[in-house]
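dude i think i finally got it to work??
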Amino acid sequence: MKKRPFLDYYTEHEISPVSQDISDQGRHLRRRNALYRHVGILPALVRGRRVIEFGPGGGFNSVHTLGLAPARYVLVDGNPTGLGLTRERLTTMEAAKLQAGESATSLDFVLSDFEAFDTDERFDIVICEGFLPLQLDPKSMLRRLATFVAPGGVMVCTCVDAASYIPDLIRRAVGQALVDRSLPLTEQARALAPVFERHFACLPGMSRPLVDWILDNVMHPFFGQLMPISDAIDALDGEFTVYGSSPHLLTDWRWYKDICDECDGANEHARRAWARNIHNLIDHSVVFPERDAEENLAMLAHADAFVRHCFAFYEDRSPDLLLDMALEIRAVAESVARVGEQAAGTAQKLHDGAAALEAVAGGAASPDFGSFVSLFGRSQQHLSLVRVR
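look at this
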């Protein structure tokens, strides 16, 4: 049977490693509000509307959407563990809303593989967060899920490109090299936690437990394809036009009277904006000036080669692949350094990450990550698109 990214791994091990710390619910809701503003979804645009969410995981983000009082909210997931947690969380929340005299939302929880799901309903907002990159054919799945968007409705999806994923994948490669695969899965993750504790201490906004992150990003057998912003736009071009993004990298200086058609140039404008900012996706702690798209695309070619070596290493475990990865990362670092003096710190973090890969290839059991410990990218970007045809 053909492997299904995410779904088979989660169901086989009966896990949903996407939990978040939402004990400070106010902070959690403010984060989600900020994201929704970036992609153009204000609370009034959700209230009384029809929403469908694919892949809600444990429903941690869904509590925010339900709190905006949609009239109908359908949640689809193929993982029984994750969907069960979502059902429990949202039905409890809905009961409290009704007790407080607030308007009811029609909730529906559907256990289904996304490829098999079907309905005659069409929705004002379709949410596909955190699972399209690394599918076998992300663009094809995006096109299928976009068919559930009503005319004038909004699709929200997440995108990942090879440059934005570099910090995560360096950690993944080191973790894969060091892990003892004879241990049960959760014990493997716990054994790796000390390797990455210092890294996550550098990320104050981290809301996921470290062991969950390891289960999802290090132990998870990646074998699909990434989906850059440009691929998502290409997949829906002609029927959808770009609406917003997070990070908010889309700036359009065209005068509105010069835009004669809803699709007139908006998607191409967004593609160019992404290409001029690929280098800004590597290090979340800084913002560099835009630069020539061709130089960024040349840098992305090295990042793509790094990803191919990284995925191959999961199967092969050859130290030579770690050295190949390091070579490509150093090429990316050299490209970043050409941005200017302000990029020297990010370039050094990348060189230190490459050095960690080289050390592990040489047999080091506890590599010195140097300044790389603080390197986290804008690894996942959110993109919203409006159905115009």
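The first strand starts at residue 50 and ends at 54.
im so relieved honestly
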